[in-house]
Every structure is written in C-alpha cells, then in structure tokens.
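Subject: complex prediction, re-run

Hi both,

The earlier run crashed halfway through, so I resubmitted it with identical inputs.
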Amino acid sequence: MKLSEIGEFGLIERLQLLIGQRQQAALASSTSSGEPQGLLLGIGDDCAVWRYGDVTQLATTDTLVQDVHFILENTSWQDLGWKALAINLSDIAAMGGIPHSALVTLGLPETAAVEGIEALYEGMLDCGQEYSTLLIGGDIVSAPLFFITVTVVGQASGRIPYPNNVLLRSSGVAGDAIAVTGHLGSSAAGLKLLKAGIHPPALGFALDAHRRPVPRIGTGQLALEAGVRCGMDVSDGLVGDLEKLCAASGMAAEVAVARLPVRQELREHFPQEWVDLALTGGEDYELLLTGPAEVLDAVRERGDVPISIIGRMQPGVPGQVTVRSEDGTIMKMGRSGWDHLRRG
Amino acid sequence: MKLSEIGEFGLIERLQLLIGQRQQAALASSTSSGEPQGLLLGIGDDCAVWRYGDVTQLATTDTLVQDVHFILENTSWQDLGWKALAINLSDIAAMGGIPHSALVTLGLPETAAVEGIEALYEGMLDCGQEYSTLLIGGDIVSAPLFFITVTVVGQASGRIPYPNNVLLRSSGVAGDAIAVTGHLGSSAAGLKLLKAGIHPPALGFALDAHRRPVPRIGTGQLALEAGVRCGMDVSDGLVGDLEKLCAASGMAAEVAVARLPVRQELREHFPQEWVDLALTGGEDYELLLTGPAEVLDAVRERGDVPISIIGRMQPGVPGQVTVRSEDGTIMKMGRSGWDHLRRG
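This time it finished cleanly. Structure:
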C-alpha cells in the first residue's frame, strides 16, 4: 500500500496504534509498579509531555522541506530561520508551556551558500532571543535538497499545580466557548501574494504573518493561569485543527463566520476568498482555546493580544465542526472552497 | 561561498562561533544573575547538557538521509529503524547518560510503502524496548526523498554528584590511557560486504555491526561510576573522533595499531584493509574512553563488554593523533589509506 492511498493522517493513525500497542507492552513488562516512567502524553497533542521529579517537561518537533513547505525564491534565509523555530515555539505555546532549548538539524546540498546558512541561523537566533530559547545542539547532514528540523524542549509553568499545568486538546467540554488569538487567514493570504509576486502596501501584515509567525507563548501561559484547560495552535487551518481538538475532546463544535477575526484589508483585497483563507488557510500559528466565556474574557483583559470568541463546543459526533455563514446558513467545504450547504 | 569549499566541519565551526557570540549576548542581557539558565554544554559534545533543578538533562539528534547514509536496496526497513534510534542512544551512552524518550521525524515521498514505514517503526520500537526509550512524538512530512531524524532526551545518572555526572570530550588529561569498547572496523567492513553483495558466514558479525549497532549505554554508565570523566562515541572513525576528543581536551595522543581490537576473521578477510577499516572506517558506535589504566580496567571487570587500551593522551599539539604501526613506525593517512611515514 502506498502512502498516497491513505495520506499522512492515515499513516499517523496506523503508527499511533502500532506505537501504543508496542509501548503499552513495554511499559507493563519493564515497570513493576505500573508507573509509566513519567510519560503523561505521547503522540496526539502539540507536544509530548512527561515528568522528571516535580517538573513537567514538554518536547515538540517540526520540519520544513524545500519545495514542500517553502520555495527559496519566495523566502529569505533569515525569515526561514525565524519560521523554523517559531512554528515549534507555537507548539509549546499551545500547551501553555515555557520553551527552553532547541536542537536544529539541517539537510544541505553541497551547493548551499554558506552565507545563506549563516543568515538562517541569524533568523533562528533572533527568534530564540525574542522567546528565551537557546540553540543547544543539532546535526548537519548532506542531502540532495534542503530541509530543516527543529526540536524544542521546554517545561510547564511552575505556577499551576500538576496535572492542570498544560493545555490539552482533550480537555474541551460541552458549552465551552471557542476562542482564537490574533487574526485568521493572514498567513495564507501572504502566501498567495508571494506566489502572485504582488506586494500591496496595505497587506504588509499578511506577508509578515507568513514569513515571521509570532508564537503566542505569553498568551498560552496567561490562558492557563486564568483557568483555560483546552487549547492547540492553528497550523493546518482553523476547521481542520478544530476538528482534531473536538475529536480529542469527544465533542462537536459550531463556529460562526461572522465572528472570525479577519483583517478588514484582507476582506477587501480578497472579497471572494477571505472566508476560505480564514477557515482553511493554514499557518496562522494562532492559539485555539476553549473554556467558559468569562475565563476567555479574563485572558483577553490580562494580555495584549486580541482574543475573539468564534463559536461553541457542543455535544454531537466527536470531531464534527459546523460552520455557520454570515446569513445563518450552514456551510460545507466543496471543490472550490467553502460554500453554503442548506438553511441551518 | 559554497558549502563544498569549507565542508561540513568548516560550516559547523562558523556556526558555533556565530551561535556562541549571539547567545552570549542574549544570556548576558536576559539574566541579571549571570546564571546560564541551566545550560552547561551546547554544541561541541555528543549531547547538549542542561540542568532543571537537581536533574542534569541530555539531548541529542541524528539524521539518516536516503542515498547519503543508507541505500534502500542494502537495508531492511526494520534495521534502518533500529539504527536511526541506536545511533542517537550511542550519543547518550557517550555522556554516560540514561536515555528516556525519542521524537521521530520522517520525510517521506508519496510513493513510500506503508508496510515499510511500519517495519521501520517496529525496528525503532525494538531498539527502544531494549534500551528503555519511549517514542513520544514527532512529525511526518512530505519530501521528495526519504529521511529520518531522531532526537533523544535523557538524563545523567543520579548516582554521581553534579558536575562530574557526565563524560565530556574535554576532560582528558596527559597520561590518561585511551580505551575503546568492543571491536573496531566491523561496521565499515559490513558496508563493504553489502556493497559487494557478498555475505561470508564468518563475517556475519560485520553485517550485524553495520545494520544493528549496539549503543553502549550500560558501559557508559559503568565508566562514569568507576571514575572515568572523558569519553565520546566512535561514529566518524577512530582517528577522526580521537582528534576531536584531543582538540576538546587540549591534548595530543598516540595509538598503537598492535592494540586495536579488530576481529580475527576481519583481519583474515581484509588483510590489506583491516588497519584502514579500524582507523577510519566509521559507524562503529563504540565508546572511546580516557582515564587512568586501573580505572579503565575496573570498568572492564565490572561489565561484560570488551574494553581495550589502545594508546595514551600526551602533551602536544591539541588535536594531534599519532598512529604507531605494528613495527613501530609512525603511520600517516594518504590517498590510498594509512601508510608508514617514517621510523618513530
């Protein structure tokens, strides 16, 4: 069976099953006490989580591959370095965690320009400096094309007692409001502009969002401290990611297009496409949080990042997300994007 | 400047300098106390080392790229999985550490066979089970060719007080005996046999050494507990790796070909090449340890892995390794391998 037949998510499901079966046996046979060697959470959330003594630790890894995740013509090395670290920091933020250190693996062709690689590291160091994350090691390997894998380790805030000290995808409950930080669709719009080779001055924020995503580390910690328990980051697109959160929580959800935080300039420049960009654009690296509306309001008041309530968790088919259009109809993803389905 | 002009090690040197300069500034500006946020050792040893509270933590990462580090025709997926994890565990062993968890990133073409990927994970899970290391997360990305990046985190043994609880490349002193575990050259011989498509029954150990390297985790911990302070693993070839250890320790060294632990069957099958295979073959994943001869003897007596004293650390040009042949002459690496240079 080829990977293309079951897709990346199909493969991940099979591997999760395999790893779960094998390691359950390994754990049972290796520990007489039944203690899971400190592992709290493996594959299936934004970070792996385990305990050493009193400290709850986090680790995550993300990779960018040339011509798959970036095109060298469209990006500067420095921006690429920033982004490679930032998307990992966003996973730490998604758990409400504090990043600590990063390991960096580069796959490089022999023809790579040394100055470019140094600029890439400058971009990573800029991002690391901004978010208190040290580059502590890594590996450089020869490869026919360029790729960069970053692994970030960190810890949960010591201010919240275990086991409530991380935001989990699985902690959502019926009635929770669903909130998102910042604005949606900007990064996907930026990519469209880059591909088209146009740079309208009013849409500079979209190019920035695509090139230099901002990990919401402070907001993740604020949310946890305010009492939020459920969250993830929006990397693959709002609806797809909310479906994962809902599946993990055993819930359904509804979101309202009228409430999506999308910048006015983006709505004006992409009048036909802004809903698609916001619902499925991807690479926003904003936080998706669920909790009581008043708790989410408190997070907004204590931080300096916009937080918008866009919908609600509800009982239903686990993982099912309903999108309600501005005129109250239910929308569905079709071949040419999100479209009205029927009266809701 | 192209990477090919300065090579991988030239690039690493430049990046170490850049990272050192930038992070020194970041550390100085971000910490009023001058404490390095717990970072003990960054780039330049087998693992990065830092402290959380009372625990000394370790992390390392290594990558295998198709057609660079392996050829799919020469390897089974299961062996490849074992090796991808084992070479990282070897870095933990090289610090005398205890591995804990692994994150795995796969780059996969759409045409990859799902059964192959599952076999790859079976191999990793076999290795993880053998050495008490859990697969806790990772990333799967689309890529035009296959690559696998593994990051392993672990900790130093709690039985040795900080700061002597890790083996460092930089801890070698003049007069130290130099020892190596197991046998040298087997993996490189195995690769030669695989490339030639021959499988002499007497050399099965060489194929095994190449396909399923054994991380010396127990020996690394025994060495540390016996009082050894200096070590690394032999991954790029004995002489090249000993040069790195000597450079880090500010020492020179001499090794004697007569003392190299090379299996008899390998000497017989490769009468012209066994010295080269042992000195520069690479991928042995044995431990290189330096310390008082009686301490190294004690490690041998307490463990079940062969340990051979092969030379001595001595004052001299830092990083310079002298190789003495069986007849007492000094050898030098030439175009066709190691050769006699002059009477010693």
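The CA atoms of residues 141 and 196 of chain A lie 33 Å apart.

- K.
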